[in-house]
Each structure stands twice: as C-alpha cells, then as structure tokens.
Specification:
Elements: E1 15-27, E2 31-37, E3 42-48, H1 54-62, E4 68-77, E5 85-96, H2 110-115, H3 117-120, H4 124-146, E6 150-151, E7 157-158, E8 170-173, E9 176-180, H5 185-195, E10 197-205, E11 218-227, H6 231-252, H7 254-259, H8 264-268, E12 276-278, H9 279-288, H10 302-309, E13 316-319, E14 342-347, E15 352-360, H11 364-373, H12 382-389, E16 395-401, H13 402-410
Parallel strand pairs: 3-5, 6-10, 12-13
Antiparallel strand pairs: 1-2, 1-4, 2-3, 4-5, 7-9, 8-9, 10-11, 11-16, 13-14, 14-15, 15-16
C-alpha cells in the first residue's frame, strides 16, 4: 500500500511503500539508517542486514544523498522520532541515483546556500518554514471566510503609485508608463464598495535599496478592506486575525516549531486584545529611555520599534502617526489635523512592523485636497475619486507582510528564509 510520511501513522504495524528521497544515510556492517523525506515530512528507514536480501542491503549501503527511491517496509512506533514512527525496510527500488549533491551535511555559507536555493529548500529547516508559511496562508483564508470576506485579485501592473514613485519599479506597458504594484489596497477599496469586505493576497514590489534582515524586494501581502468599518473596529479585527494565525500555527505546526527550536510559549502569549500606545506616547517614552535625539515628526527605525516592543509580551499597536509621515489616503484624526487614524502593529522579539493599517479618507473634497497636496494627478486617480463620488462610506483596511510574520512565528533571523525564492537587493538568482 502506498502512503506518505505524513499519513504513515495510520498504517502502524502494516507494510507500506513510500516514494522518497534519501536526505542522509549512515551504515555499519549490520545495519543501515536512511533519513528519508517525501515532501510531507521526514522519517528514518532502518535496514537490518540479517532481515533483508543481500542485494537490498548492498543497495541501502550504496545510496547517495538525494537519490530517489521507492522503499517498502513495516511501520513501527518510535517515541524518539519526531514523527513518532520509523520504517523497518524490506525492499528498495532506486528510481534515480543522484551524484555529487552540492549541499552536504557539513556547514555552508549563506551565499552558497542562496546560490543553491532551489536545492536548499529540501533541508529540514527550510521545509519547516515553508510549512509554517503554508499554514498561515490557509489560516488566512479560513479567518476571512469566517468573517464574511470575499477574495479579490488586484492587478500587479498599475498606472499609478499609491505611496509615491520613489520605491516603485518602472516598466513600459506598450506605449504607456507602468509600475509593478507596491500594494493592492486601492483596488481592494473598490472591491469593498462592491462586496462589503474583501481581501487580496499577492506579490508586491518595493524598489527600496535596503539590506536589512526585515526587507525583501518582492514580498507577499495580505490586505483587507472593509466598508462601514471605522478605525477602532479595524484594530479589533486585526488583533483577532493575528491571534488566530498564531493559534493555528501552534496547533498545526508542532513538529516544525520544535525542529526550529521555537519557544512556543512566545506564540501562545499572542492573545487579543493587544496593548496600544499613541505615536505621541511612544516618542515621549523613547526620549526618556535612550533615544533623546528623536524628535516628534520623525519616523521610527528598527531600534525604536524593538525598544517599544520589548515592553510587552505580545504585539503592540502604535496609533495616530503624524500626517506628514503617512500616505495621502489616511483619514485625519477628528480632534487634530496633524495626525491620522492609523496604526502599525509591532511584533515582539525584534521582528518589527507586521501590519500597517488605517481608516481611509471617505470625503471627496478632502481626498482631492490630499492628492493635490502630494502632487498626484487627479486624472490618474479619477477612478479612485469615483469611489468617494458615488455612495462613499467610512471604511478601513490593513496589510500584513507574510514573510515577516513567518520569520516571527518561526523565530528566524532573516526573511530570506521565509519565501521560496527571495529577491534581495543584489540577488535575483535562482
């Protein structure tokens, strides 16, 4: 009976066949231990010389790293194994013999591993991170479906720049100028006016010449827009969403988190409601705690965000940033016009901003003023203004960066490990 490593527990004490790759191997004169993987997980295959035909044992001893095989044997419980099982091998059929596999069990430098990213993905650590990423994606779809959202697909090629052209990739769309999208937000707003609640999920691009561990040139964003929802209601939805993601990863990725040596108690502490501080309060605290040079009106860098986050055991919202720091579409606060109704959600443990969101301007005249103040073309944004001309309502939205969230949940230092094929400032291969 064919099965997979993920399903092998259902065949305890039975004979099964796996299609697998040999991740590693060690052998002596009487026994061979095969570290097998099939994409669904990892398991050890044990080949005992006295219990198999001589040719089977010789095949086992000669297997090379990443050779592909069909392996048959009896499933046996093993409490020491990460999966709880091992396979007592009786038969091996070689599908393809790999030679000189470049990523050996020894240590390799980061650049070497990045040059071989197409192969590095096969390792246990990278497998675990991709599984956590996958769980976050699936949990996202479940959460939004349960909260009345419709999935909307925003275009990747756009004719305008939602947050300014300095961080956009320019291209030609036949005879017209075009840009790779830096957000699906504006299109999601149009979707919200048609469908009430929508979310987008897709790649976004920032031509930002940054080399920090938090930045990628191409990354994936999960963005939500909600009609008839104001700022405070949006914050409640965001914290419930992030808490749900953490809960689902803890529930469904125990093996992966253990392999990554992740302190699961840190994730279990992610429970709504989250603490909130205003930008004003954050600046005052930072000035009193080692950042005296920081002035009101300046944006926070990584050291500022990390210091603020260390005060809490869960993510913290920093609300009401200065209007001058934020994009044109954010609604000014009702009691003062120098700050906007927005929030950045800062993750603990130094992982920085996970979510950025705001209430959007819904007044036609005010949005027109803001577009003009930012030197943006009213013709180019005519369709966006139409959303305020025909049945405008209060609405809000937010965007979550997938790779930063994977890094945070997985407890890894750099986002380059959280996406299958990272695009960095000096890397577009493979």
């Amino acid at each position: 009976m064919k099965t997979t490593i993920a399903q092998i527990g259902a065949s305890l004490d039975q004979e099964v066949t796996l299609g697998a790759w040999v991740a590693n191997k060690r052998s002596s004169g009487k026994i061979a231990f095969l570290q097998l993987r099939d994409g669904t997980g990892f398991i050890q295959g044990v080949v005992v010389k006295a219990e198999v035909a001589e040719d089977v044992f010789q095949i086992a001893k000669g297997l090379t790293q990443e050779s592909a095989i069909y392996v048959s044997g009896r499933v046996q419980a093993d409490e020491r194994a990460p999966s709880g099982y091992e396979l007592i091998v009786h038969k091996i059929e070689v599908i393809h013999e790999a030679t000189d596999y470049p990523i050996t069990p020894k240590e390799h430098g980061t650049e070497f591993l990045m040059d071989h990213r197409h192969l590095w993905l096969r390792s246990k650590r990278q497998h675990a991170l991709m599984k956590i990423r996958n769980e976050i994606i699936h949990a996202t779809y479940r959460f939004f479906a349960d909260h009345g959202f419709t999935k909307l697909d925003a275009p990747i090629l756009t004719s305008s720049a939602p947050e300014g052209t300095t961080e956009l990739f320019h291209t030609k769309y036949f005879e017209e100028d075009a840009y790779l999208s830096q957000t699906g937000q504006l299109y999601a707003e149009a979707g919200a006016m048609a469908l009430g609640r929508v979310f987008t999920f897709g790649p976004t691009f920032r031509a930002e010449k940054s080399k920090t561990r938090r930045h990628l040139i191409e990354f994936w964003m999960i963005e939500a827009e909600m009609a008839f929802l104001e700022h405070e209601e949006s914050l409640q939805l965001q914290e419930n969403y992030v808490a749900y993601l953490a809960d689902q990863v803890v529930r469904h990725c125990q093996t992966e988190l253990k392999l990554l040596d992740r302190d699961v108690s840190k994730l279990e502490a992610i429970r709504a409601p989250f603490p909130r501080i205003t930008y004003d309060e954050a600046v005052a605290w930072l000035q009193e705690n080692g950042f005296s040079e920081l002035q009101w009106g300046e944006d926070f860098g990584s050291p500022h965000e990390t210091a603020l986050a260390e005060r809490f055991d869960r993510p913290v919202f920093i609300t009401n940033y200065p209007r001058a720091l934020k994009p044109f579409y954010m609604q000014p606060a009702p009691d003062r016009d120098d700050v906007v109704l927005c929030a950045d959600l800062i993750a603990p443990e130094g992982y920085g901003e996970i979510i950025g969101g705001s209430e959007r301007i819904h007044d036609y005249d005010l949005l027109t003023e803001e577009l003009t103040r930012h030197n943006l073309s009213l013709d180019e944004y005519g369709w966006y203004l139409d959303l305020r001309k025909y049945g405008s309502v209060p609405h809000a939205g937010f965007g979550l960066g997938l790779e930063r969230t994977v890094a945070w949940f997985g407890g890894v230092d750099h986002v380059r490990e959280t996406i299958p094929f990272p695009r960095l400032l000096n890397r577009m291969y493979p």
